[in-house]
Each structure stands twice: as C-alpha cells, then as structure tokens.
C-alpha cells in the first residue's frame, strides 16, 4: 500500500506551497526533511524509536489522536517495525511571517481537530475536489495554535495512559468478534471506572469517544484485510467484527467516501499504477512512505 500525497498552494496572502501526505501502516525508517515545517496527526497507534533534535534515540508509543508540530531546522529521525496511518502537512515556513517556538510540541488533538484530520483523509482517499481538500488543510493549519496552549498535567496523563493501554489492547483483541460487548458500560468496567468518567478520560487520551475509537479500529482492520487481497468482502466484514457486509459498506462510505469494493479496486489500481500528477492533484507514489518532499521540487 502506497502513500498518498497532495500538493497545493494556500489561499493565504503569503501563498505558502504545501504537501499533504497520508502515510499507510508500513514499517519505516526515515529522517524528516529539516528544511520544512510539519504538522502531523496520528490516525492509528504506532510504536518505535525516534530521535528529536539529538542523536539519542528513545522509544515512543504514539496513540491515535496525537498531533505534533515540527519547526523547520529541527532534525527528526523515526523508525517503526509496523508503522501506523499518519497524516502530515509540510510547508516551507520562510516568508510566512509566523514566528513559533523552536520546539516540538505534542499533545492529544481536540476532538474537532481530529475530525478535521479524518475528513482530510476521506478527501484524499475519496478523491474530493482540490477546493475541498485545500479548505480542510487551511482549517487544520489554523489548529496549530492549540499545540502551544498550556499542556495538561504530564504525570496525570501518564498515569491515565498506563491504566487505559489495557483497554486499547483489549479492543484490538476483541474487535473481530461481532458478539463481543464493546459498549461503554463494558469498557468502563475493564478499568473500574464509571461510564461517565471513562468517557471523559478516554477522550482526553485519544481525542475520540470509545464508540468512535472502536469504529475506527474496526475500519482499520477491514482496510488491512482488503489490502492483503485475501478473502471475499463478506469474509473481511466478518473478520473485522461487522454485523454484515452492508454494515461494513456503510462504515467505509462514511469514513472514506468509497464502498469496500471500490476501495479494493483503488488499492489494487494504485499499487499497479504508481503514477503521480501535479497541480492540485493527488499523487499516488511508491509503496513506501515518502517523508521528505522538498517543497521547491513540487
């Protein structure tokens, strides 16, 4: 499965050239282009090692809904044996007139910002018009200021993550069973929280409600099985925990703007084609994440 890259020019007075990339769930080892600033949102949990502004590598565990900003000039290395779907916008900050701290803030995206990221994913996969795609990019870029707001208490968030990581893992274990109870009362009982407290804390950690998170994980599993090109769509639906193939179709249309059959054709066609076009168009590039597009070459 390949990356999707969209190139465009912002409608702001400075007319900044940008590139949007939807990175698939693939193993990677990469160093970001330090000439570009970037804003990324994790659409899927991933683990690995990274080095930010230093040669010292540290383990990372980035959850769904985590957003980060990397200023131009900061060296970032990242490596993962599995990867995870990731949406990133890159641009050349020179001439924008915007001064931001030379740091790499990272925090959970507010639910509205995460929804914008998922809407942009739908735009890229579903082939929306350039005007629609670029409008979403502008709205996401406006959310950069939320990254520099006072962060939540780091120790409290770490304690919550330690407790709730069991929930994420159990959801992934049980997601393929349509008869498994993944309701709010059942999930909250796993960590001995009231449903209301569980709902609030889960959104703090992922930017999503538990119901939305379960739906997203089910969608990701179905997409992975379709990309594997094994089994009928009915088998994919059953293996991903959907009540029926029709139920899966509704979920795909809502999240990606494509039916499962159209998504399978899209995946197979892109893997075979590997073509790229410029001028406000989608670029379906190589089967490996393309993380270092120099803006002046777009």
Task: Give descriptors for this structure.
298 residues; alpha+beta; seven-stranded antiparallel sheet; four-stranded antiparallel sheet; 10 helices; 19% strand; globular; disordered C terminus
Description of the molecule:
The protein has helices at residues 111-126, 130-141, 144-147, 154-174, 184-190, 195-206, 210-227, 233-239, 245-256, 260-273, and strands spanning 4-9, 17-23, 28-31, 37-42, 46-52, 58-62, 66-70, 76-80, 86-91, 106-108, 282-284. The chain has 298 residues and is an alpha+beta fold. The strands form 2 sheets. It has a 7-stranded antiparallel β-sheet. It has a 4-stranded antiparallel β-sheet with strand order 3-8-5-6, with no helix packed on it. Helix 5 packs across helix 6 (195-206) and helix 7 (210-227) packs antiparallel against helix 8 (233-239). The longest helix has 21 residues, at 154-174. The radius of gyration is 19 Å and the shape is globular.
Topology:
Blueprint: E1 4-9, E2 17-23, E3 28-31, E4 37-42, E5 46-52, E6 58-62, E7 66-70, E8 76-80, E9 86-91, E10 106-108, H1 111-126, H2 130-141, H3 144-147, H4 154-174, H5 184-190, H6 195-206, H7 210-227, H8 233-239, H9 245-256, H10 260-273, E11 282-284
Antiparallel strand pairs: 1-2, 1-11, 2-9, 3-8, 4-7, 4-9, 5-6, 5-8, 7-10
């Amino acid at each position: 499965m390949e990356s999707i890259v969209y190139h465009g020019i912002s409608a702001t007075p400075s007319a900044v050239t940008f590139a949007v990339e939807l990175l698939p769930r693939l193993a990677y080892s990469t160093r970001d282009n330090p000439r570009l600033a970037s804003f990324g949102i994790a659409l899927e949990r991933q683990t690995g090692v990274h080095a930010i502004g230093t040669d010292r590598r540290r383990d990372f565990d980035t959850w769904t809904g985590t957003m980060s900003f990397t200023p131009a000039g900061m060296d970032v290395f990242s490596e993962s044996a599995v990867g995870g779907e990731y949406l990133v916008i890159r641009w050349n900050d020179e001439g924008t007139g915007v001064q931001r701290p030379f740091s790499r803030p990272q925090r959970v995206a507010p639910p509205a910002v995460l929804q914008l990221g998922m809407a942009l994913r739908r735009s890229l996969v579903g082939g929306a018009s350039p005007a629609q795609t670029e409008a979403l990019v502008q709205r996401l870029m406006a959310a950069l200021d939320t990254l520099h707001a006072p962060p939540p208490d780091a120790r409290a968030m770490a304690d919550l993550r330690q407790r709730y990581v069991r929930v994420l893992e159990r959801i992934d274990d049980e997601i393929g069973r349509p008869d498994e109870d993944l309701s709010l009362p059942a999930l909250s009982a796993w960590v001995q929280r009231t449903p209301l407290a569980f709902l609030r804390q889960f959104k703090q950690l992922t930017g999503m409600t538990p119901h939305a998170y379960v739906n997203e994980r089910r969608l990701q599993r179905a997409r992975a099985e379709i990309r594997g090109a094994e089994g009928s769509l009915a088998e994919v639906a059953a293996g991903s925990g959907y009540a029926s193939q029709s139920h899966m179709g509704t979920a795909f249309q809502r999240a990606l703007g494509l039916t499962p059959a159209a998504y399978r054709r899209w995946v197979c066609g892109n893997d075979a084609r590997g073509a790229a076009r410029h001028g406000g168009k989608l670029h379906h590039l190589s089967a490996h994440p393309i993380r270092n597009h120099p803006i002046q070459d777009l």
